[in-house]
Amino acid sequence: SMTRVEYMLCLSTTVSAAVWGLIVAVPLGFFLACAAFVMRYSSTQSALTKVLPPHSQRTWLVERTEEDYALLEQDTSAIQVAELSGYLFFGSVQVLVDQFNVSGKASSSASAPTAPAESNRPTFYVVDFTRVSGVDVSALTELLRIVQQVKGQGRSLVFSSVPKPVSRALKGAGAAQDSDFFRDVDSAITYCEDEILRALRGQAHMASCPQTQDSIDILEAV
Q1: Is the pLDDT of residue 82 over 60?
Q2: What is the model's pTM?
């Protein structure tokens, strides 16, 4: 059965053909069909960002200690997962700009922070392509721009279940490397957690060695 939009499209094309002829009706019908297509997909939520639930509500790929669980619970927003879905085209990927808080201004900071920020800005972003049915060239171009901006602001971004054409394009443009791609979202999240734990353990070690920290402070002052 046809939707209301499709029914109105057929009716308007038929009326146009009866009144003005096929010369007018054909291009008018094509224009209306394109407009309906854009309106339909632009209103579709193509990305959904979610914060990971507490460890007690999750299934873990690796066994962790209670100490590790406690460290990860210090900032539950340190990892956010953006689940893309459907056919990505035009500005559909633009949803990630708001959800990733991309300001468009790259910073000169390091490209891979590993400790949760006190400002609650997520340290890691995971972009999951599991539910993506296809990607338009324009969507791929926009995705490349977003990835470069996110990494330019000193944040880390990894991908899961990425179609081969997309991964080749990201690697070819220098926006990602092989270690940024994972077979599924659970593997990507596990990697992010490992990086966060490694950074937090390093911070704890530095805090337990005041003499080392004092030496670092002296060197920085010099």
Answers
A1: yes
A2: 0.65
